[in-house]
Amino acid sequence: MPSPAAVKPKFGIDLFSIRSSGWTPFQYLDYCAKWKANVVHFSEIRFIGSLEPDNLKKVRAHAGKLGIELEIGMRSICPTSKAFDPKQGTAEEQLVRMIGAANTAGSGLVRAFLGTMADRTGDIPIEGHIENTVKVLRKVRSRAMDAGVKIAIENHAGDMQGRELKTLIEGAGPDFTGACIDSGNPVWTIEDPHVTLDMLAPYVLTSHIRDSAVWRVPEGAAVRWTRMGEGNVDIDGYVRKFVERCPGKALSLEIIVTPPRIFAYNDPKFWDGYRNVPAWQFARFLAMADRGKPLPAPSKPADAAAREREDLEASIEYTHRLLNL
After folding, report:
1. Which residue of 16, 51, 176, 204 could cross-link 101, Cys pair, CB 3.0 to 4.6 Å?
2. Residue 278 pLDDT
3. Closest by CA position to 105, among listed 76, 73, 144, 75
4. Which of these, 127, 153, 129, 128, lies nearest to 140 by C-alpha position?
């Protein structure tokens, strides 16, 4: 494997890392430029202000002056997901609107997602939600292809494991879809993030990168998202592997620091949402949990926005050192 110094990735920042700042898109861009970001990932519409063409053109021009590449995103595109917002129009209407916005903003992709871990249980199994998302994507294929915009589907908030997202991408068509791979969300699906990367590397369009801590508890496992370098999922190895196997793709930090979340897999009912998980993959997750040690919850900040910037900046410095940026 080449050394990090041998291959320089595009370094990016996902603005969800500093979601409480409430800045204008121009303030976000100026902040990211100060931290030497090559890419700024506007993962949700709220961060870019509006989809009005005049606003998008101004944001694009400001990013251009700073030498920053833009990526834009939206939320759920699965009409049967609990996370989908029908008030914004049909899934197809929302995607078409975002494809047009991406063209105006100069983004080569639109990040979107299926749903959350809540969609693994209920009347419709996760396979049904995947099928419904594939149908939506196929309906907008010609619009995306004509615009030269790809749809980057995230493994989001515990909705899909890597092989499930791979099935979605292959079902919709990898000529215009791919993965926004998130290194933190696999542990919310009882999956080793390295397994996720192995599954999705050929399909990666962009990324969300953060570290995680995983350890055993009597109920099963505890999971905590952390600053870069504070977890036990071998984030250093993950980042190096990403740089090697996904050349030219943005390595964008999405730093979210959370209290522990318990995955009670010792309770038989837990498996209602995970009956399709291969034993070998779960064994990889267990081995990771066995190596972990309890990590206390972070203290409650007096100023959430300041804490988010502090967590992001510490993680930027760690990643810059790791990759000799």
Report:
1. 51
2. 97
3. 73
4. 153
Rounded Cα distance between 304 and 237, Å, is 30
Nearest CA to 201 out of 156, 252, 238, 168 is that of: 238
82 located within any domain: yes
Q: Does the residue 216 lie in any domain?
A: yes
- Taking the C-alpha atoms of residue 73 and residue 90, their distance in angstroms, rounded to an integer, is 16
Q: What is the pLDDT of residue 264?
A: 98
> Is residue 232 one of the residues assigned to a domain?
yes
**Of 235, 165, 150, which is closest to residue 196 (Cα–Cα)?**
165
The continuous run of DSSP H or E covering 64 comes out as helix 53-66
* Cβ neighbours, 10 Å, residue 118: 14
CA 197 and chain centroid, separation: 12
> How would residue 9 be classed by pLDDT, with cut points 50, 70 and 90?
confident
Average pLDDT over residues 141-147: 98
Q: What tens digit of pLDDT does each residue of 286-302 get?
A: 999 999 999 999 999 99
Q: Residue 144's CB: how many other CB atoms inside 10 A?
A: 23
Please give the structure tokens belonging to residue 202: 């050929």
Give the total number of structural domains in the chain.
1
Q: Compute CA distances 76 → 83, 102, 165, 176, whole Å.
A: 6, 17, 14, 18
Is 32 in contact with 40 (CB distance < 8 Å)? Answer: yes
* CA count, 13 A, side-chain hemisphere, 244: 12
Residue 101 sits in a domain of what CATH number? 3.20.20.150
Domain assignment present for residue 131? The answer is: yes
Amino acid sitting at position 281: Q
Q: Residue 200 in 3-state DSSP?
A: helix
Strands (E), the chain: 10-14, 39-42, 69-76, 109-113, 150-154, 177-182, 204-208, 211-217, 220-226, 250-253, 261-263
More confident residue, 220 or 4: 220
The 8-class DSSP code of residue 123 comes to S
Range of the domain at 248: 10-323
